[in-house]
Design brief:
Blueprint: H1 2-13, H2 19-31, H3 33-52, E1 59-67, E2 71-82, H4 87-153, H5 158-193, H6 199-203, H7 217-227, H8 229-251, E3 256-267, E4 274-284, H9 290-360, H10 365-399
Antiparallel strand pairs: 1-2, 2-3, 3-4
Length: 408
Amino acid sequence: MRLIALFLFLFLIHPPLHAGSDALVESARANNAQVLAARAEWEAAKARIPQARSLPDPSVLAEVMGRNVTGAERTLTLTQSFPWPGTLGSRESAASYRARAMWHQAQSAELGVIAEVRAAAFEAAFLRAQTSLIRQTLALFEKQSSYQEELSRTGGDLSELLDLDMETSTLANDLTQIEEALVRQSAKLNELTGTEIPPATLAALQLPKNTPDSPVAATLTDQLVRTNPLLQAMSARSEAAQAGIEVARLETYPEFMVSAGYNRETTMDGRGETMHEAVVMFGMSLPIWTDKNRGTRDEASAIAEAAAQEYEAAVRAAKSRLAILLSQQRDANRRASLYQTELLPKARQLNEATESSYTSGTAPLNELLGARRKLLEIEIQHARALTDAHSRAAEIDALFGTEIQPPK
């Protein structure tokens, strides 16, 4: 129930992305090499469980001895070793914990890649929005440039035309740089998704118009420890290391060996008699090297201590990362709200008032260009704040081991 509540909570604070982003996420799940490698490592760890609980392979010994005078002897012996009672169970437990750790590790890798894909998709959407805004302004400047050319032919101020041309060239240069950045962003998405992204998919990417709500860090810290896949992997590794202590202890105890054999002996002393014998033997190893045994146990204890400390360090790092992401998201939300509610309306009002004054002849061209440039700057900063807010939300989703998908 707690996981369901967490899912619904995160679903409310982080609304689903556009369908184009969802297509990128599914492609990354299916084709990303890092995700596929992590899944393969988990499969390998699962395959070690039956190996850990199995007995050592038995050995077969066949022996033939022949003597020309007295006779011949043939022996067949089967030997099976048995570890100390409880050893196989402890080995299986340790292997199971390691497999569980690899499963959480695979989930962590997948969620990390998904967060990268979503952040890259948001960045691509931002670049597309920035391109659209600049093109709109550039179209207005080019239209004004045609008007200024007509004025200059009839004796108008040439400096205003030069000023407008400089503004137009600067915007055209910015547009070219952004288009190149979009090419680079597309290449990054191709790498993350493991496939060539169709242009239509990139064209479908759009920035959300609203910001995600910032959750309270204090209410999420405990849930973070329970649901973060990397922390769960570290916890399972620690448990595997603890199980390894018991394995090391049991492996310093003797192993038992049972042999069953058949012996056939034929005499050549004139009577030609054949004797059949069944042989059963019992043996055991002698773990008498105390330094070796002590070293085995000490090594297992040190590995368990290292795993426990690594887990504690990972918990602290995850909590710190959560605090940083929440702070960044709150700041991005604040900036987006400031632009949306205050700066954008004022910039639009200033632009409209300046256009009216310019049309009536009471404002020079440079004031019109300045007002339009200020509006463009604030529009771009608003889009930047939205991008930052939703990118941080995608990272928070990955940190909690929760991937938000549209309801079906």
